[in-house]
Structures are given as structure tokens and as C-alpha cells.
Amino acid sequence: MAKEEKKQKSRSSENIGQRIFKCGVISWAIILVVWGLGSLAYDDYFLPSPKETIDSLIILVQDGTLWADFVASISRVAKGWALAVVFGVPLGLLVGSFKPVRYLVEPILSFFRFVPAIALTTLFLMWFGVGEESKVALIFYASFFAIFVNTIAGVVSTDQSLVEAASCMGAKKARVFFTVILPSAVANIFTGIRLGLSSSILTVIAAEMLVGSDGLGYLIQSSKLYYRTSWAFAGIVTLALLGFIADRLLQFIGRKKLGHYGLK
Q: What is the C-alpha to C-alpha distance for residues 224 and 164, in angstroms, rounded to an integer?
């Protein structure tokens, strides 16, 4: 009995150690130590320490600046990304399902998907103005292609033997689409939605740094005017947390709602 208890304790301790290692605590501890030691060699303007960054975060939260910028950025991301999902998924399903349409669209798609959203900033400012519309349009453009292309790939990669089997059993094209093609493409579609979200967050920061008057990108950009590099670090940390939490939340929802389609 004593030996079995010792084995169980050793196994539980190993499991705890594995969990700690897998969750990334050790990696973050190493980063913080290296960051802290590196900040000792430079002044606050060049490389603020983790403590100075946390102090700036607290100050920005207390005066409401960080919360206002956070809300401004996340609302733009939500609008642009949601529009990209609404348009990208149906169009991707349409283009992927019909070869003539795919042959017509692919050359245009191959051309525009390599044009970064930032390169269109000037044009979007002229077309949509300096308000919210231009920023949302940039985010939509940046995330649309990731969703669109992955949706097409999901449809095209459907096992044709399953399609033929369903057709031989008398299923009409609409039924084949909803029972075979669409379920097969769900994993790719979800991957495209996740990539679109990351593109949205990257683009909103760049847009706010260039033409914004609020948002996390503007906070990072304006920190140099006040010689407060720690504010820039605070904005970067908040941005990283935003992306990390949003992606993990999206993964959690996907596993809960779409797990039977093979999402992990």
C-alpha cells in the first residue's frame, strides 16, 4: 500500500510539473527575467522595466485612457472582422463550389491578396474619409482574404468520393452541399476566421498609428510625444493580451459548438 501511494504521489507531481511546463509559465518567467535584467543596462526612455510597465498600466487604467483606447480598438476590430466573416464565408462557399466561377475569380484573388492593407491606407482615406469608416474598411480588407481563401480551400479539398456516393444515393446538389461539402469545409473555414481575427488586430494598430486619434495604436504612437516609452510597452502588452484572449475564446467556442466537425 505504501509503495502504491508513493507511486500515485510521484505521478501526480509529474502531472503537475507537466501542466506547469505546458501552460508556458516557465517561458514567461524567462522572458520577464531577461527583460528585467536588460532594463538595468538602459534608461527608462530606451527600455522600461517590467515594474515600470505595470506602473504605467495602472496609471493608464486609473485615468481611463487605457480603457477608452481598448474599447475603440476592439470595436473597430469587431466591425471589420464581422463584416469579413459575413461576406468571406458565403462568397468562399460560392466560388469553391462552382469551377467556372473559381477560374474567373482566382486570377483577381491572386493579385489582390498580396497587396497589404497598409498600402491602401491613402486610398481608403480618400474614399472613406478620416473617420471610422476608413479604419473598418482596412480591417475588413485585411481579414477578408484569409477567410475567403480558406473557405475556398475547404470546399475544394472535400473528398469527391463522398460527394459521388451521396449523388449516387439520389441526393440532390443542395443536399450534397449541406450534408457533405459544408461539414467537410468547416475546419478550414474556422481556421480562416481565426487568421482573419489576427489580421484584424494587426491592421487596426497600424491604422490607428497612421491616422487615428484614439485606440491602442494611437496610444503606442503618441507615447513618443511625451517621452513615455513605458506607455508604448503598456499598449503593446494590452494588445498582446487582447489577441491572446480573443484567439483562445474563439478556439473554446469552436471546440464547444463545432467539435463534432473535427475541430480540436
A: 62
Given a cut of 70, whether residue 45 has pLDDT beyond it is yes
pLDDT score for 17: 60
- Would you place residue 202 in the very low, low, confident or very high pLDDT band (cuts 50, 70, 90)? confident
CB 187 within 8 A of CB 261: yes
Note the pLDDT of residue 148: 93
Look up the pTM and report it: 0.82
Cα–Cα dist 217/212, whole Å = 8
Q: How many residues does the chain have?
A: 264
Q: Give the number of C-alpha atoms closer than 13 A to the C-alpha of residue 133, restricted to the C-beta side.
A: 8
Buried b (16+ CB within 10 A) or exposed e, 161-196: eebeebeeeebeeeebbeebbbbbbbbbbbbbbbbb
